[in-house]
TrEMBL record:
Organism of this sequence: Comamonas antarctica
Main location: membrane
Transmembrane is among the record's keywords: yes
Bilayer topology: Multi-pass membrane protein
Protein name per UniProt: Type II secretion system F family protein
Amino acid sequence: MTSHLPAILVLCSLACVLLALALWLWSSARRQQARQAVQSTLERSLEIRREQHAGEPLHLSHPMAPALARPAQPGPQGLRRLKQLLRYRAWGVAPRTLALLAAAALALALLAALQGGALLGLMLLALCLLLGAFGIWLRVSRRRAKMLLQLPAFLDNLVRLLSIGNSLHAAFQFAGSNVPQPLGGALAEVSAGLNVSPDLGQAMAQLERTWGLPEFGLLAAVFRMSTRYGGRADMVLERVSSYIRDRQSAERELRAMSAEVRMSAWILALLPIVVGGMIMLLNQGYFLRMWNDAMGQKLVFAAAGLQVFGSLLMYRLARLR
């Protein structure tokens, strides 16, 4: 038991760090929800006062209107940069779910450390983190694909609203109010940001940094040019919508042609992991006997390295662009 004490202390410290990060994400989400609720209430109040006093300026129509013009107080700079770097807002995962998954992974790592030593526990923890990162990447990829499918319909609605005489900001807010998730949530964030800064191009550029979609950057450039220099934004947006539809059609054809290659890559990449996991679960004595041998550990590390290299190679071969 004393030989496993350093591993237990390391895993407990990692558990504390992950739980602290999960609690910070949860508190940040609660603060954002509360801020959005207050902002929506103020917007409804200002809309009612605007209808009652049509000729009165917005900044005098409500005593709390300046609160909408003040940006939210930023949190710690390091945590904000980490959140932007990881693109946490694009995950669509509740902080409570992340905390539960982290606790389950740490429990499995502690059990493995007690059975096979500190190194095995750290390897299992690294495997859990790798699988978690893969799951988050897969979820974000699916959400991005769904957003791209919803984007042309939103642009068509935006073009129709612009063609009947609405301003760009009003048309954007009207068109984004009826868009389903996940694109609707992203557009709602942009609409909420317009109450602080009226620059629609800057808000779309921030959305591009959050989701990593170049189509949002293209829309940001269109909105920025239309705001600064004017012109027919509806015609440009109509062409952008046609371009996105043509690109999606070409990507669907390419995916259909490469379906066999991608399925083979998935099977070849997951088969060794599934077989190794089944052996570790069903015959622990066989694996521990190999793990406690020096040459067996070298073979396990070599197999893990070859598995990672082969998975990356097959991913690169199956990723056709």
